[in-house]
Amino acid sequence: MPKKQTAAITLNQSESPVTTLKQTLKTARSGETYVYESNEWRIGRTLKLPWSALDMNGLTDRVSPMVLDSFRKTMSELVEEVSERYARDLFDRILSLLHYCTDEITIKSFELWRTNLSTRQISTPTRMNYLQQCRSALIAWSDGGYPGLERELGNHVHQIKTSSRNNTGQIVREQCPVRGPFSQIEEVSLLRWIHAAYADGTLSLQVYAIFLIQVEFGCRPVEIGAMRACDVIEDRTEHIYELAIPTAKGSRNYRAANRKLELPPDLYALLKQVIAEGQNKVAQAWGQTIPPQLSKKLPLFIGRSLLAAGSIEAFEHRLTKTPRTFDVHIHSHIISSIQKCPVTTDRLAGDILPISLYRFRRTVATRLAEAGASDELIASVLGHVTTDTVKVYTSHTYEDQAACDGIMVEAWEPVLDLKEKRLLGEPIVGQAKINLNRDDQVGNCAQLCGSGIFSCYACPKFHPFIDAPHNKALAQIVEERQKRISQGLSGQQVDSLDLPIAAIKATIRLCEEIKSRKKP
Description:
three-stranded antiparallel beta sheet, 3 domains, mainly alpha, 23 helices, disordered N terminus, 520 residues, 48% helix, globular
């Protein structure tokens, strides 16, 4: 969340139900700032959340203050993640649900609200939309760990289906389009924006690396914040790269346990660049050269508190006393970048795609489940001590993979955006060369990133050479796809290669057209 700002202003009791000497300023995804304790949150240019509605409906006298407080905290998180229109819809659904609650929101109260919904004179699509919105808000409430929900309510709402099998726009039947895993199209679009935003300078190197770590591993935010430079490992014996992820659960001692997962070479190179950039910033801020042994202790992601430490001696002293003191609060670190993301989703009628760090986590787990990974493997990747909670992350799967593939083909038409002007007859001086292997160069890129050679073909920053051996790139990726199928993999493990295959084929066709026009 954005860093809290406070002002020592006494609130008027007639204007707010919360008695406090401070006003906490927070920012919605739209960029509007609101006072958390106030009776009205302006979350968009024209939209507000009217907390006075609780009094007007008699809910402050009937519903537990604990439930109302949790409702407010949940909405504060949601207005950072979703559009103002959708946030207001979620607010209205919970407000209507609270009419059936007292000490907590129970399965019984939820079903009473749901039954009443079915008796109202509204269309079936509208009723299903209301149900989906209420469920999304309750899942966000449960994710936040806030009190006021019956223990089994989360599992209950997860199992309710709100989409029709005949709805072709719904490529994936998922439990929650706000907090659940991203669909394939959402993930592809989001990744394209992440790479493009880094290339044009919208995302900093640190934020870009955080996003890619989440896409690859789905870490808990606190685990990323606790990472050190020494956690990026090159195993020369095994010839592999690894990331040691500090385990947030299962150990009482800070950084006492970790899980090592293999790093893709491109991501390893990017993280080494993050380390170098961060250590240069620290050296400049402290006015001291950072010795090699100390450099390994520095956080992987550098925050203001570390730069403000002032010296090596102060850093080591504070690290000994309070080891967590320099950990970056990851959500605060990237929230402004999330708010810039323009990606939309058809699953919310073209609304802005809600993004939270835990959606990446659930997406990683879901893709593993789709590929046939065991609960033990998924628990190991996610850092769970047992497999008991794995189903929370793996309950969302594809209804029909063939139907999903068909929809993806149509979706890729605007995604590829491959035009003749992107092709090059000869290299551009000063731009990075993209190599397929040691001998074959296939194009130029305005800025290198950690996406990998096959992702380059679908990236607008990549300029293929007309005479490059793109057929070799196609042969390599088709062979990789077949290899995965022969290994028994399926789902995202295989389908993730379809987009680059389509992009390479489109590149080859365009190159051949240009060559044919040049022939006498």
